[in-house]
Amino acid sequence: MPLEDGDLFMNKWLVPLVLLVAPALVMAGGEPSNGDGVPTEMAEGRQIYEQYCASCHGWQGEGAADWNKPDEKGEMPPPPHDETGHTWRHSDAMLFRMIAEGWRHPFNETDQLTMPAFKDNLTDEDIRSVIEYLKTFWAGDQRRYQQSESHSRDRHPS
Amino acid sequence: MKAICYRLNSALTGFFLLAFAVVMPALVQAQTANDGQPVKALTTNSSGALLVLRESGLFVLDGKTATEIPLPPSDSVPRPNSLATGADGSLYLSGPGLGIWRYEYASERWQSLSHTLPDLGITAIAAHATQPDTLYAYLGEGGMFRSRDAGAEWMKVDSGPREPVEAFLHSDMPGSMESGWLFAGTTRGVARSMDCFCFWGDAGDLRGTVTVIGYDPSAPENVYAVIEGQLHHSSDGGETWAGIETPQAVTALTFSPTEGLLVGTENGNLLSRHASGGWGPVHE
Question: Span of the secretion signal (chain B) (predicted)?
Answer without folding.
Answer: 1-21
